[in-house]
Structure formats: C-alpha cells, structure tokens
Amino acid sequence: MKKIISSLIAILCATTTFAQTFSISGKLDGLPEGTTLQLIPAATHQDEKPIATATVKEGSFQLTSTTDFPRQYYISVKDSYGVIPIVINKGDKVSITATAKLNDSQDNKFYSFTDEKITGAPLTEEYNKKMSPRFDLDKLHGDIQQKYAPISAKMSAARASKDSVLASEIAQSEEWIAYEKAEGDFFKKADEVIGKIISDNNDSWWGPLLTLNLYNYFTPQNEHLYDNLSENVKSSYYGQILKEQVRPEGFLNKMAPTIAAKTVAGETLNLQQSLSGKKVVLIDFWASWCAPCRKKIPELKALYEKYKDQGLEIVGISIDKKADDWKKALGEEQLPYPNYLDQGETANNWKVRAIPALFLVDSTGKVIAENVALEEIAKYLK
C-alpha cells in the first residue's frame, strides 16, 4: 500500500504544476511621479484587464503576480498607448530600466520606451532573438516608405482631390512603378520570414505564441497555422488560444452572449427590451477609429429607415477605449438607432475579432446570423 501511495504522489508531482510568484521591478525615467503602471496579459487577441498595477515613486515601481507556465505580458501606462513586452516564467525576478517619452497628440497619449535593459527574464531575451527577423522587417519597410515618401504623397493628394488624370499619370511614372515593385518584393520577403519563424518553432509552446504576435487577425485560411503544430503544443495555453482564433466556435443558433454596454446617458443595454415588438435586432460592433465601420454607416442608416417599421432594430456597440472619441463620432454621424459603449467585456463575450462585426438576433434572443450581409436582412423579416 505504501508503495502504491508513493507512486501516486510521484505521478502527481510529475504532472501537476503550481503557480509561483514572479516580480518585475525597475525604474522608468521620464514618467511623472504617481503614474500608474499596468501588467496586462498579451498575445490573447482579446481586450484584457490588468492583473497587477503599481504606482511610480521616485521613478521606481514593482509589479507582482503569479503564473504556472511561461506567459507574455505588456507593461503599460494606464490610459495610454505604448507597451514594453515581456515573457515571464514562474519564479522570475525581473529588473527593468528604460526611458519613457510621452508623445501627446490631441486624440491619444502614447509612450515610447527606449534604452530598455531587462535582466532576470531569460525568456524575454529568447523571444527577442526569435522575433529579430520580424523586427528587421520593420526597419526595411520603414526605409522603403522613407525613400518613396515624395511619390506616395503625390499619389495620396491626387486621390484625395479625386484627380483621376493626375493619379493615372503618377501610376505610370517610373518612380511609382519602382515603389510598387519594392512594396511587392517586401511583402514576398515578409511572408517568407514570418513563415520560417513559425515553422522553426512548431514543436514548442513558442510556436503559437509567436504566431499570435505575428498576426493581427486570423481568417479560416489560417487554419494551417494551428494544424501544423505538434499535438502536445496544440493543447498548450497559447495553442488553445490560436485554435480559437482560426476556428472560432461562434454563436450561430445559440442564445446571444452577455452584453454590458451603456448609452451616453448611462443607461444599460437590455437586449430583450430592444427585441420587444421587433422581429430581429442587428448588432453592429464598430469604433470611431475604424474606417470600414464609418464607411458602412450610411448603408446601416438606409437599412434602418427602410425596415424599422417592418420589424428591424439596429443596435450599435462601440469598442472605443475613450468615451469622448465615441461621443464625438456619434455627433458626427447622427445615428438614428440606439448606440452603446462597450464596458470592456461585450466584444470579448461575442468573440469579436475584427470590426465591423454584424450579428443578427431573432425575437427569442437567438443568434441567427453572424457577419451577415446587409442585403440579406430583408429575408429575415418575412
């Protein structure tokens, strides 16, 4: 019996991992006294909340949390853009020094971090080494953009003024043809570089983590990125996140997920109330900064006016980070249908990966169409 118990204990010890505390301390020159720093999970393709915060005192800070496996995080300044990416393992005691510079535009606060020195995080060093070919691509593309900036500016001006004759002349110029060739060659090289980074790491947890960093969004055509992983990597933390990205389960024929969104006046969205007396509700996830979203608004307005008396309701849900940006867009667009601001969870609950994202919900609260085309709405109103 003792041997059996000892064997069971040995198996449990070998297969069970326990979360351990890690710490990140350091000094970021250039940050005002009292600045709040956040530690946010990275590479999840979701709107994550901070798992730890720290207040800068005399330029110094300390963040602590726990993990039971390697994870990537972002260190950021609260209510600002710009991050320091870091890969942490359990038990790490990390030290960081850097210089923070605020680039404060009218719309957004953005911190750039330079002179970074990170010690005590060997996985961060390994991450940077694995991603270095990707970082080299950024410099290469920047050089191309700088070289051809004059001809690019001329083409942009011609298109903005809708001068098709001038745009055609520019498009036939040697400089523009050279620019397009340079861009084409660059993206071909980028595909090769990114493909090699991924294929070189398919047999470890690095594979899905790097893939999640290398792609801004995924489509069904990217399923091979998950399929090519080794079986044990597929079941890893980042492997499962990648699977959800390339093969999202979706909500078709399921009850609508939870919504947490409010109007300008602070009223909470109640989907059942929106459905009251209606056949369907079209939910539009959008944002003030999303050009395709803004471009679709005239179509949504026309659709609403045409079918609002035939059982259609439209509900807009903005994923803007700043309420003022959303309110400004509402004033500019003068939307005739109800609009709400996501309170931080709704887009995640609905697995919104890109916007605009359109969902159609029937009178029972069931999702009957995802990413529905506007011209198909009429058939659901019969």
TrEMBL record:
InterPro entries: AhpC/TSA, DUF4369, Thioredoxin-like_sf, Thioredoxin_CS, Thioredoxin_domain, Thioredoxin_ResA/DsbE_sf. Pfam families: AhpC-TSA, DUF4369. Residues 1-19 form the signal peptide. Keywords: Cytochrome c-type biogenesis, Disulfide bond, Isomerase, Redox-active center, Signal. SUPFAM superfamilies: Thioredoxin-like (SSF52833). PANTHER family: THIOL:DISULFIDE INTERCHANGE PROTEIN DSBE. This is Thiol-disulfide isomerase or thioredoxin. It comes from Sphingobacterium nematocida.
